[in-house]
Amino acid sequence: MKKNAIFLSLALVNSAYAVETPSFLDINDIKDAEFKCLGEVPNYSKADQKYVDILWDETLTYLKAYAHALTNGEESNCINSDEALFDSTEGGKKMCIMDRRDMKIMVKNIYQVINNPEKAKQCFGARRDVSWIYSPGGELEKNSPVAQWAKRTSFEDFFNTNVTNKEVRKIGQKFTKNFAKMVTGNEVKMPSSFPYDVSANALPNLWAAAGWFPMYGEESKRNDKNFDNIRGGYAYAEVFGHWGLLRIDEINGEKVGAEVGMTVQSVDTLYPYHNHAISEIYYNMRKPACAKQFKSFAVREDSPLVKTVKEDNKMRRVQFDASQANEASMWQAGSAEQDPLLYFHQNTIHAFDVDGSCEAKPEERAIVSVWARSNAHDKRNDYGTTLLCESAKNPGTPANRGEVIQCDLTKVKW
Asked: Mind listing the pLDDT tens digit of every residue in the chain (414 residues)?
C-alpha cells in the first residue's frame, strides 16, 4: 500500500471511535471522564503530528476490539464475559474473566479512553525519546511510514550491540530476520470473541512502531535461570500503560493499572516457569500447525501441589514436582481456535511450551498474543519484575520440565 493511501485510510476523525456504553458500565463513569497523564504531555510539530495521529487511530482500533473481546465471549457460558483458563492442573480450571474486579476496572478504563478520545489523546505519544524500546525493523518497518518516522534502534542493532552472549545473539539475529513473518500471514488469526482483526495484518503501523523490548536479551542475574532460545526469541510491546504509548495516571481521580500490549515467542521454546505479583492475561492469536502445539501450564499459589519450603515477611519459597507421572496432563493446549484466553492470578506459577517440530519452517513461526497486566498502579507490589523459577536440585539454573522446580513468590500487600 502506498504511503498516501495509508494516510488517507487511517486519517479518521477521533470522535468516530466513541462507542455506545455497554449496559454493564455506569454511563456516569464514562461520559466526560477526566484524565491525568503520567509524565509530561508530549507536543509535536504539524509534520510529526500526522504520524502520531496514525498511531493513535490504530491504538483506538486495537483497544476497542480488546474490550469487546473480554466482554463478549461467543463460545463461553458467561454473561458479558469471555471465558479464561486460570489453572491447567486437574484437567484445567476455567472462569468468566469479567468476574475479576481488576478486569472490570481495566475494561472500564478502555471504554473511558475510546469514548473520550480527544481527552485521552493528550496522554498519548510515540515515545521516540525512550532508548530501551526498539523497532523490529525488516519488512514491518518497510511497510510502516510511522515506524520509519519513529527511527527507533532496530532489533538487529540491539542484539549486535547490547547482547554479549554469542548464542543468544545468534538466536536474536534469527528472531529479528523472521519477526515480520512471525506476526503476519494466514497463521495469525483472531479468537472468535474479537469483532475484527487487530494483528499486524490489519494494524501494521501499531505493530511496527509501538516499541518492542526483548526483555531477556541483555545479561542479568535473572537470566541465569533462563534458556538461551527464550532470551533471543521473545519480545513484548506495550500500547496502553505506564511504559507504553498511552500513559494515563488517573481517570476520574482513580489510578489506572492497565498495561495492554502484545507478545511474540518463537516456536521450539519453553518460556520458563515464572511468576509475578500482578495478574496477567493472554489471548492466543495463532492457528496451530499440529494438535497441542501451544501448551500452557498454570498452578495457583494456594494449590496443594505447591509446597512451601521457606518463608519470610516478603517472600515465600515454594516447590512444585514436575517429575510426577501425570505431569504431561497438567499442560493444557490452546490456540486462537481453542481456549485462546488465559488469566493468571497474582503469584500463579506459569509457563508456555511451544512445539516447533510440526512447522515446515519453524524459524519463521511464533506464538503471537494480545497481552495485559491489570494492577500496575499498586506500587506496594513489584509489578515490574517477572521472577523466573529455578531447578530445586541445581538452584540458579533453569527449571526444566520433569524435575522439581523452585519459585520465590511475593508476599502481596492488600
From this structure: 444 434 433 433 344 556 788 999 999 999 999 999 999 888 999 999 999 999 999 999 999 999 999 999 777 789 999 999 999 999 999 999 999 999 999 999 999 999 999 999 999 999 999 999 999 999 999 999 999 999 999 999 999 999 999 999 999 999 999 999 999 999 999 999 999 999 999 999 999 999 999 999 999 999 999 999 999 999 999 999 999 999 999 999 999 999 999 999 999 999 999 999 999 999 999 999 999 999 999 999 999 999 999 999 999 999 999 999 999 999 999 999 999 999 999 999 999 999 999 999 999 999 999 999 999 888 887 766 899 999 999 999 999 999 999 999 999 988
Evaluate whether 100 touches 107 at the Cβ level (below 8 Å).
Answer: no
For the chain, the domains span 138-300+325-379
User: Is the CATH number 2.40.240.50 carried by domain 138-300+325-379?
Assistant: no
Give the pairing type, strands 83-87 and 259-266.
unpaired
Beta bridge partners of 351: 297
Q: What is the SS3 assignment for 145?
A: helix
Residue pair 60/17 in contact by the 8 Å Cβ criterion: yes
Count of H-run helices and E-run strands, the chain: 11, 20
**What DSSP string describes 8-44?**
HHH---GGGG--PPPTTS-HHHHTT--EEESSPPP--
In three-state secondary structure terms, 212 is strand
3-state class (DSSP) for residue 403: coil
The number of CA neighbours under 13 Å toward the Cβ of 263 is 22
Question: The cell 493511501 sits on which residue?
Answer: 5
